[in-house]
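Q: I'm teaching a short session on how sequence maps to structure, and I want students to see two examples side by side rather than one. Could you give me a first protein with its sequence written out and its structure tokens following it? Keep the formatting plain so it prints cleanly on a handout.
A: Of course. Example one:
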Amino acid sequence: MPTARESLLDAAFVALAGRPWSVVRMVDVASAAGVSRQTLYNEFGSKDGLARALVRREADAYLAGVDRALAGPAGAAAGADTDPCRRLAAVADWTVRSARTNPLVRAVLTGYWGERLPTPVRVVGAPATSFYIPAQRRADAGLPSPVELLGQVRDRALTSLRAGRPQEEAERLARACEVAVRLALSYVVAPAGAEDPARLVRVALHA
């Protein structure tokens, strides 16, 4: 059974799919989640706090999907696919599919939020990657910039692919991870119709 927090985040995500975040009302989110408005404020502090938590959850879910793609369909314990090209192609495919179906993932990957989405609140004069952290919800802090998120994907891929391989392969694998991530992002920013990003990654890395 989902917690009140998860139910509220689910309700906020559904509300965002139907209308711009600026007109989403906290009372409606609480009602859809089956909890009181006071419970919502106790959990997130404010509408901005709810937005931060929602974006953080979707970014974490995307990264969890990256880990699954790197592990392969059989899982590492069962002897998953060890071909770096195929595993990075799976990451590219997951990245593009996630961005197409989830506007928050697309926004975190590209840095473009648009008028319908909640824009993360920053401290005036703070560095571009520093986000305001409400005291009551420190756990919702740390929304990554596009550069930071892509760096996390690249580093996760490199860590996964290096396992059991000679140290001299590290530099080549690092370049391969960077190429795969950048190619995937190009499809997110400029969709290419029926073109398969996974196929392009495989071709580019084999070349």
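Q: Perfect. Now a second example for contrast.
A: Example two:
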Amino acid sequence: MTALAPEPPKAFRYDYAVSDCGSLRTPVGATEAMLRCSGALWLAAERALVVADLHLEKGSSYAARGQMLPPYDTRETLKRLAAEVEALSPALVILLGDTFHDRKSEGRLAADDAERLRELARGRTLIWVIGNHDADGPRALPGETADELQLCGLTLRHEPRAGLQPGEVSGHLHPAARVKATRGSVRRRCFITDAERAILPAFGAYAGGLNVRDKAFAGLFARLPLAGALGHGRVHAVGWRSLAGD
């Protein structure tokens, strides 16, 4: 049973809208963000595509320890990322930490997967934000590295800082929503935001999810947050009181 975080103290009326492609437009800090159905964040003002927690080569990491998983997670994750790049033609692609599952992942990349990463950097800026799983950053792949960066009045970093952090965009916690329904419930990866800060879902094919009612999220939001649950072709706006623990 998940240890539930206490509810934030205030309710809030969100100014969000569902776009034609099923993504969710919402303010984050002083800018407007689009929560994409893929789990990516789009900042149109800077043409920046932001994804968190790809955990590339997680399958091969588990295989090295004797837990055999289908070795296709990197290919599938990069295929989905390439589709977002093709759809949006970003000027910036920001990998928001834990892009690799461990420090040896880059050496285990298949040649065609490494080429897909190089392709992402052609004609645009690729930024690797450092995470706890990939503290060394890339060694032989293109792009810039950063501990955090400022963009559109936002601070983008891998791990959310404790307490209230207006304008912060982060990953790390792999948020997931269990949504109450008439017959049981459904669990989906999700964005979580109170319009002041946002935490992105894990983008990686093999990355798991932590229920947003878990105590790890306690104290991060000034008001009852909104979950943007990833559905089939749509991000569903789900209010806090419609969310259940695991």
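Q: What should students look for in example two?
A: Point them to this: The chain is about 15% helix and 30% strand. Also worth mentioning: Helices lie at 58-64, 73-88, 105-108, 111-120.
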